[in-house]
Design goal:
This protein is α/β, with parallel strands linked by helices. It contains five helices and seven strands, in the order αβαββββαβαβα. It has helices spanning about 5-10, 20-35, 70-75, 95-110, 135-150, and strands at about 10-15, 40, 55-60, 60-65, 65, 85-90, 110-120. The two termini are about 25 Å apart. Bound molecules: flavin mononucleotide.
Length: about 150
């Protein structure tokens, strides 16, 4: 069950980068659970509204061991005052190296990374076929709810 009372108090934002749509699915599942929109950092030429929030979710696929360039740019230009708590998520072929990379940038800005989550994402036709699947998306939603509970709003 979603605690709507808590969600009304907690300002949540979800930003993602996704080349082939896998991370977009996860971002949209998390955003739906948090009753907000999933915002693609590559859309609108990078001109998205960025206001302060209590819980910032950021997600990406991994491309040659790194998060998408647009996501890296987004994180690097983020105002440190944007919020206190961040959560890193993503999809990967076999190794989630981008999670530590995104976490490091956020922590360098002074944000506290309270959780990390990544699941396999389909690559070409056969690798991780069908992932993220319904089970993955359910897990992502449960993870997001746990993160919401971790945030203390004064
Ligand atoms: C150009 C390219 C490079 C990739 N490099 C990696 C990698 O270094 N490690 C890995 O685990 N997966 C790698 N993958 C797999 C993707 O991270 C995986 O399919 C992911 O779900 C893609 O997310 P997206 O659909 O949101 O773009 C790569 C995929 C592509 C297309």
């Amino acid at each position: 069950m979603v605690d709507t009372g808590r969600m009304q108090k907690t300002r949540v934002k979800v930003f993602y980068y996704s080349k082939s749509g896998n991370t977009k699915k996860v971002a949209e599942a998390i955003a739906a659970e948090m009753k907000t929109d999933a915002i693609n950092v590559a859309s609108h030429g990078g001109n998205y509204e960025m206001t302060d929030c209590d819980l910032l979710f950021v997600g990406s696929g991994v491309y040659w061991f790194r998060a998408g360039n647009e996501m890296v740019k987004f994180l690097e230009t983020l105002a440190p005052s944007v919020g206190k708590n961040a959560v890193v998520f993503g999809t990967h072929g076999s190794r989630d190296d981008h999670i530590a990379q995104m976490k490091k940038i956020l922590e360098g800005k002074g944000l506290k990374v309270i959780g990390e989550w990544s699941c396999p994402g389909q690559e070409y036709a056969m690798v991780n076929r069908g992932r993220p699947n319904e089970e993955d998306l359910k897990e992502a939603k449960e993870f997001a709810r746990r993160m919401l509970w971790k945030v203390e709003v004064i």
